[in-house]
Design brief:
- The structure holds two protein chains of two kinds.
- Chain A contains one helix and no strands.
- Chain A is an all-alpha fold.
- Chain A is rod-shaped, with a radius of gyration of 28 Å.
- Chain B is of the alpha+beta class.
- Chain B has one domain.
- Helix content of chain B is about 65%, strand content about 20%.
- Chain B is built from four helices and three strands, in the order ααβββαα.
- Chain B has a three-stranded antiparallel β-sheet with strand order 1-2-3.
- At the A-B interface, helix 1 of A face helix 1, strand 3 and helix 3 of B.
């Protein structure tokens, strides 16, 4: 028994699609932010390690 | 209606997966930040102790035996005071080694590692430099 969809039912699919779009875009944006944070930490560690190497170089120079 | 329901199910599942993935990434990031903080704190504390104690040593750095003795004294001091307790239960490692006239300090947590070297001359522990 087929019944003609009501006007309200016609809004369901676009709403679901829009919701999906929001979920995917916001999820990807948050993932990008998390990745950016991790990269920033890696850069910080490398900077600290470089400072350690410079510190050690000064200590070695003092040996001479 | 059926298509919408299926799509809603797919998007909900995708949303949950993304949420879990973001949560794990955030947790990993926080853990890594805590570990880096511990490494920095440990090195800073140890360097501070060595600088303070080194200045009190007054070693004749022209004498090789005294130099060795001075470095071993500093190594013993750091071993005695031990490591700073990390905020979480990380598996931390701290290694002290005297080699080539230097005291090498290495601290690590998992893959994260930092290392510094100290010399008596650099620490101002030599008599001739004090005078």
């Amino acid at each position: 028994m087929w019944s003609k969809p009501t006007r309200q039912q016609g809004f369901v699919l676009p709403s679901v699609l829009l919701l999906g779009l929001v979920i995917i875009t916001s999820g990807l944006a948050l993932q990008a932010m998390a990745l950016q944070g991790m990269l920033s930490q890696q850069r910080e560690l490398k900077r600290d390690q470089k400072a350690d190497a410079e510190f050690s170089a000064v200590m070695r120079q003092a040996l001479d | 209606m059926l298509v919408s329901a299926v799509l809603l199910g797919i998007f909900s599942s995708l949303g949950l997966q993304l949420s879990g993935s973001i949560g794990r990434a955030a947790q990993q990031q926080q853990q890594s930040a805590d570990q880096q903080h511990w490494l920095a704190l440990q090195l800073q504390r140890d360097a501070g102790l060595l600088i303070r104690q080194g200045a009190l040593l007054a070693v004749d750095c022209s004498n090789e035996k005294q130099r060795e003795q001075g470095l071993l004294q500093l190594q013993a001091l750091l071993e005695q005071v031990g490591s700073i307790e990390p905020a979480e239960t990380f598996s931390t490692q701290r290694q002290l080694q005297v080699a080539d006239g230097l005291l090498q300090l290495q601290v690590s947590i998992g893959e994260l590692q930092r290392q510094r070297e100290f010399s008596l001359q650099g620490l101002g522990a030599c008599i001739d430099e004090l005078g």
